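Exam prep: given the inputs below (a chain plus S-adenosylmethionine), describe the expected output before reading on.
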Amino acid sequence: MEDEQIHKPVLRKEVLEYLVQPHAERIVDGTLGAGGHAGAILEACPGARMLGIERDPEMLTIARENLSDSADRVEFVQGKYSDMARLCEEYGWQRVDGVLLDLGVCSYHLDSAERGFAHRYDGPLDMRFDRRSEGTAAELLNHASEDELRRILAEYGEERKAKKLAKAIVQRREKRPWMRTGELKELVASVVGRGQGGGLPPATRTFQALRIAVNDELRELEKGLTAAVNILKEKGRLVVISFHSLEDRRVKRFFREEAASCVCPPEIPECRCGKTARLSVLTKKPVRCRPEEKEDNPRAGSARLRAAEKLPDER
Ligand SMILES: C[S@@+](CC[C@H](N)C(=O)[O-])C[C@H]1O[C@@H](n2cnc3c(N)ncnc32)[C@H](O)[C@@H]1O
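Solution:
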């Protein structure tokens, strides 16, 4: 498969603009994927080494192939970006010049029926980034309580008919266990209808919700953002690309909190919290793709990039 077919890196130019600094020596790509961004970063920073972290062993194999020309400058690591501080330490890296997180799935995931991420194809209800880890989407659908399913659909899918859908999922599994994405897609269409969600296929929200739950993606993000700030050196850059509002809201809130130097209530005359700002936010608003990029790669249409710079430790 051509790597262009596997994954087109979104906001490539903008990632380079915010992440890359000429003197950079060490950069972490926490979501290596097919290595699209990584290749561009390595080309733009000829003196830099990269720690490329990828949760999915299959994607890591693809990245190794795509980055074979720069392989001597990349440590390929199968793991989770929330563990980046420990992983950096294992490679003797104390502080880094940049961290990139390009969240979510690759085109490869959405184009592989057997991974169960896409409602476009019929496949097993899997959705794990790492197929050696426990807990597939089918297991979740077959064993979670109705209330837990409702919460997942409402919170992670922002599904308005979460209660009705959770009930239907439980009723259906009493007859036979959930196994295939096609069966789920049909049930969602019958419960939610076809007209919801601003033109999105009705199963989009359900599949997003299950994927987030199966991979515990929001907790990963919270832990990963904190880890990234901890390992950045002064003036190091953190760039995060998210693809839905659940992620972007968390990134925005995290940046705001890390950029605040005092969180004492306004009625207290003197600061007692002792908090110091650790980040300076570089993007007042999220950066969106240019119309030409959206035309070329529709997935880029929902991408939002936020970037921040690490402030000195003691201020
Ligand atoms: C949008 S893709 C990244 C694409 C990449 N920037 C490129 O240009 O090829 C996101 C990748 O992150 C991986 N991933 C998801 N959660 C992860 C985690 N917690 N830790 C590490 N990798 C993760 C996915 O398997 C997927 O390959």
